[in-house]
Amino acid sequence: KWEIPFEKAEDGTITVPGDLTLNNMGLKSLPDLSKVIVKGNFVCVNNYELTSLKGGPQVVHGTYQCNNNGLTSLDLSRRAAKEVLYRAGIRNTDVDQVVWSTTVPVLSAP
Q1: Other beta carbons within 10 Å of 3
Q2: Helix (H, G, I), strand (E, B) or coil at 66
Q3: Global pTM?
Q4: What is the pLDDT of residue 54?
Q5: What is the three-class DSSP state of 42?
Q6: Coil, strand, or helix at residue 85?
Q7: How far is CA 37 from CA 30, 41, 48, 51, 89, in A?
Q8: Each residue of 69-91: pLDDT tens digit?
Q9: What is the pLDDT of residues 26-39, one digit of tens each?
Q10: Is 81 helix (H, G, I), strand (E, B) or coil?
C-alpha cells in the first residue's frame, strides 16, 4: 500500500504536492503515471529490473532521478522531456532531435 498524498482534478490529472519516491520496489515497469504532475522530485532508484521510464510522470517540477536501474530506454513523456531539457539549459524545443544517452544515470537541473 502506497501512502502518497495527492489531489485529483476533474480531468483525471493527479497532482502530488511533494516528492514521489519509488525506491527499492523491485519494479519491472512503472505504473501508469502519465497523468501525474509531481510538484517535488520524482525519485525512482534501485529497481534493477526496470528497463524503461515509459509511463512516467507527465511533469516533474523538481529533480527526475532514475539511477541504479536496468534502463535501456529513457522513454519520457514529451512534456516531461521538454521540462528536463529546459532546466538543464537545453532550449531546443524539438525533443525528437535530442539524442538520449542511456548511460546517464540521473536527469536533473544543474
Answers
A1: 4
A2: coil
A3: 0.71
A4: 86
A5: strand
A6: helix
A7: 15, 10, 25, 22, 21
A8: 887 776 665 566 666 665 555 55
A9: 999 999 999 999 99
A10: helix
Closest CA to 15 of 74, 67, 57: 57
For residue 107, what are the β-bridge partners?
64
What is the structure's pLDDT at 33? 93
How far is the C-alpha of 75 from the C-alpha of 86, rounded, in Å? 17
Do 13 and 34 form a contact (C-beta atoms < 8 A)? Answer: no
- The rounded distance, in Å, linking the Cα atoms of 110 and 103 is 18
Give the span between the Cα atoms of 85 and 58, in whole angstroms. 14
Distances (CA, A) of 66 to 10, 21, 35, 72, 80: 30, 10, 19, 12, 14
Grid coordinates of 56: 512516467
For residues 64 and 61, give the distance between their C-alpha atoms in angstroms, rounded to a whole number: 8
